[in-house]
Write a sequence for this structure.
């Protein structure tokens, strides 16, 4: 009993000693004496850590008595080690010296906007991405940024997802990773499903709305997404990020890095696995990815080798939900074949050099290669042999012209090239000049295989029923400059020339021979000014973008009737400011299109729907966004966009089956709404921090009515919707951890029934009065109330 009492007394005394001691300090820049926000502080022999607040202050509590070794690190500064003896009441001031390394931010600076660039943009940093990232795809993570509407085929944000910005779809949104093009060269789209958990390797993301600044790859025809991958960390680290949620959703991520080795080298790696059953029946996703980065960091140069890959298998839910099932069977999936799946893998390799030449020049050069391959498998009931170039099969006296078939449609492509830029800054800092560009080649094979047939006839397994190839060369050169005319007033100019050569040949999936070649040369000028007055920056610009048709426009249209390229004239004007606890942006935009390509219902000679040019259309709107810190505990933020999106005149074609010989009837519309372009999009975020470790966020999103086609017919539209989410985040630094974070996200907390995406088609059939118009709408319903829970452990 004495031993027990003595042991308890020792434990009590020890706990009292831990509770009584604390270290309070402040971390500042050694030269400017300004506080460093977010510096990492670690007590080596106590296993406890902290992060500095907005005043550069940190507190390490529950510390043992005696000598304590402290390590302080901050990106761009030399790591400092010091010691102190506890107990102490002194405020420790720690001064960090800037590190003489070239920053990695220059890798993306050539294609990004700066504070004095006269264009409209939003930058999302790593911390903000991490708060939102619980395994959902990039479009879902960006849902609360200005003018964005995101959607998910499976309904839960994992698998096939997409986004629109100002009503502009993904094929018109340029995306780059470290300045290297990401959009598919032929469809111009980005398939985020091929990049699962990529957000875990993103350092920052800039969204430029409108034409923006010159970039590489597909034309910026409404917005651009500019990703920078993880930058170097000075200290070694390891992270485990695991989570689960509704619809049997699981996420497992492991990250680790060496920190800076020998003051020159660093290696970082990530491995991720995400699975989900999806909200829609059978719409499962099985996703995996990895990311590796190795870098050499010199005083005047950085060399990085980056490799990342994503593999996906998703059960198809592309068909959507028929309107008849919208009320009572929202999880319905048309597909029932057990392997109706999409299977694809994409590997990316980037070799990046950036360096300083003399006192005025910085250069950046990147070589890249992307290899993609995969297929989607389909079961086709009673499909005609002629659709596969096959003859009917004679069995006895019966001539069989169709049978059940399982087919695979393949893509196998290579994309490679280089991008580069040189940046000159004059001695007085008034002239900032960038010259850049790149050249890239895409070589893609498209082919289809029959892997099974109930009646095989004269076929062998994996017979290719179509096979065609496409080669696309895309090159551009640009020069952009900002010149300070007088203090606060900057003039901006940006000139780009882009050339495209596109050739294709072979047999298409509809058995037509598709041989052709097209070449384009586009000139894309941009001009503007910015004026800084106190905390405000006023800006205005005019920009031009030209865009070639996509693969389907070439393949589906007769070669003699290839659509004309599209042209966009974009005006942006606005003001942005940071004043104490208040930040805001307000801007006006006008996007005038010439020859915009849209679906009209017109069909080609084999019945496929084609896109046609409309002479004139436009988008015009006002965007407002801002945030206000009411107190240290309360912050209000949000954005809203009001717009008009119109086609001045276009002709719709409707199939007519009410007559003996099939025909199409034409209907002309004037001043009609552009499809999927809501007049109002807004979001709001309320954050409450009752303590420094706990954050409660209420997130709301409103999207106005969207029309499924360009007729402005409410019978062919998506209803407006208003959703609300709750996010709870808790962080701590318990012993033996550098950080511990718990995140709970409850999506659609009021169980709103909504559909952000869909499609429609109409046709005439015989009726009592001669003919009847039938319209079929299909929707992609999103999940009701659901949750995701994540635990991140940092070592």
């Amino acid at each position: 009993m004495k031993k027990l009492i003595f042991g308890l007394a020792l434990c009590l005394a020890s706990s009292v000693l831990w509770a009584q001691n604390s270290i309070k300090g402040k971390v500042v820049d050694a030269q400017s004496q300004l506080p460093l926000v977010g510096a990492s502080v670690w007590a080596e022999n106590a296993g406890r850590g902290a992060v500095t607040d907005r005043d550069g202050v940190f507190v390490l509590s529950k510390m043992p008595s005696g000598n304590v070794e402290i390590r302080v690190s901050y990106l761009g500064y030399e790591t400092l080690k010091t010691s102190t003896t506890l107990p102490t009441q002194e405020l420790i001031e720690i001064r960090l010296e800037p590190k003489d390394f070239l920053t990695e931010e220059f890798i993306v600076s050539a294609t990004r906007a700066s504070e004095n660039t006269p264009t409209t943009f939003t930058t999302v940093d790593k911390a903000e991405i991490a708060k939102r990232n619980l395994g959902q795809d990039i479009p879902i993570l960006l849902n609360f940024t200005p003018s964005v509407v995101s959607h998910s085929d499976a309904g839960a944000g994992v698998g096939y997802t997409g986004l629109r910005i100002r009503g502009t779809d993904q094929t018109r949104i340029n995306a780059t990773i470290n300045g290297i093009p990401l959009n598919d060269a032929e469809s111009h789209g980005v398939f985020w499903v091929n990049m699962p958990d990529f957000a875990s390797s993103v350092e920052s993301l800039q969204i430029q709305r409108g034409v923006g600044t010159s970039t590489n790859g597909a034309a910026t025809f409404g917005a651009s997404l500019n990703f920078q991958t993880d930058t170097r960390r000075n200290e070694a680290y390891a992270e485990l990020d695991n989570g689960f949620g509704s619809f049997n959703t699981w996420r497992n991520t492991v990250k680790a890095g060496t920190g800076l080795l020998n003051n020159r080298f660093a290696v970082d790696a990530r491995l991720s696995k995400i699975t989900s059953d999806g909200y829609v029946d059978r719409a499962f996703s099985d996703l995996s990815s990895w990311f590796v980065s190795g870098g050499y960091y010199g005083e005047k140069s950085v060399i990085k080798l980056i490799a990342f890959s994503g593999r996906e298998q998703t059960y198809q839910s592309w068909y959507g939900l028929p309107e008849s099932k919208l009320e009572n069977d929202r999880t319905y999936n048309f597909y029932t074949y057990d392997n109706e799946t999409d299977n694809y893998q994409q590997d990316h390799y980037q070799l990046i050099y950036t360096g300083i030449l003399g006192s005025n020049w910085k250069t950046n050069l990147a070589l890249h290669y992307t290899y993609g391959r995969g297929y989607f498998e389909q079961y086709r009931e009673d499909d005609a042999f002629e659709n596969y170039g096959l003859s009917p099969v004679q069995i006895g006296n019966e001539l069989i012209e169709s049978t059940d078939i399982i087919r695979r449609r393949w893509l196998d492509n290579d994309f490679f090239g280089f991008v580069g830029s040189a940046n000159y800054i004059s001695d007085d800092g008034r002239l900032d000049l960038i010259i850049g560009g790149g050249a890239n080649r895409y070589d893609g094979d498209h082919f289809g295989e029959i892997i099974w047939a109930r009646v095989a006839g004269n076929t062998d397994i994996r017979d290719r029923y179509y096979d065609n190839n496409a080669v696309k060369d895309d090159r551009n050169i640009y020069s952009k400059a900002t010149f300070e005319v007088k203090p606060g007033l900057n003039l901006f100019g940006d000139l780009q020339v882009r050339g495209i050569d596109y050739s294709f040949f072979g047999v298409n999936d509809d058995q037509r021979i598709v041989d052709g070649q097209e070449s384009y040369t586009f000139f894309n000028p941009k001009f503007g000014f910015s004026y800084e007055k106190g905390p405000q920056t006023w800006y205005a610009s005019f920009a031009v973008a030209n865009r070639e048709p996509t693969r389907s426009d070439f393949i589906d249209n007769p070669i003699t009737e290839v659509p004309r390229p599209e042209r966009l004239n974009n005006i942006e004007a606005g003001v942005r400011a940071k004043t104490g606890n208040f930040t805001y942006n307000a801007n006006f935009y006008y996007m005038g299109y010439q020859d915009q390509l849209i679906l009209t219902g017109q069909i080609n000679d084999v019945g496929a729907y084609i896109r046609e040019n409309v002479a004139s259309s436009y988008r015009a709107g006002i965007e407002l966004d801002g945030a206000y810190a009411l107190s240290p505990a309360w912050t209000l933020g949000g954005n809203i966009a009001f717009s008009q999106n119109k086609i001045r005149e276009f002709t719709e074609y409707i199939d007519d089956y009410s007559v003996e010989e099939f025909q199409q009837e034409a209907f002309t519309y004037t001043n009609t709404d552009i499809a999927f372009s809501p007049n109002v999009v807004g979001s709001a975020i309320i954050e409450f921090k009752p303590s420094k470790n706990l954050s409660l966020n209420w997130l709301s999103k409103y999207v106005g009515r969207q029309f499924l086609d360009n007729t402005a017919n409410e019978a062919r539209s998506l209803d407006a919707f208003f959703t609300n989410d709750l996010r709870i985040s808790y962080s701590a630094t318990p012993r033996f951890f550098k950080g511990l974070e718990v995140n709970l996200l409850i999506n659609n907390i009021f169980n709103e029934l909504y559909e952000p995406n869909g499609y429609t088609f109409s046709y005439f059939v015989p009726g009592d009065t001669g003919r009847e118009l039938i319209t079929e709408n299909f929707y992609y319903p999103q999940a009701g109330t659901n949750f995701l829970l994540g635990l991140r452990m940092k070592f």
About this structure: The two ends are 40 Å apart (CA to CA). Confidence is low (pLDDT under 50) at residues 1-19. The CA atoms of residues 711 and 755 lie 19 Å apart. The chain has three domains: 2-96, 106-229, 237-558+566-794.
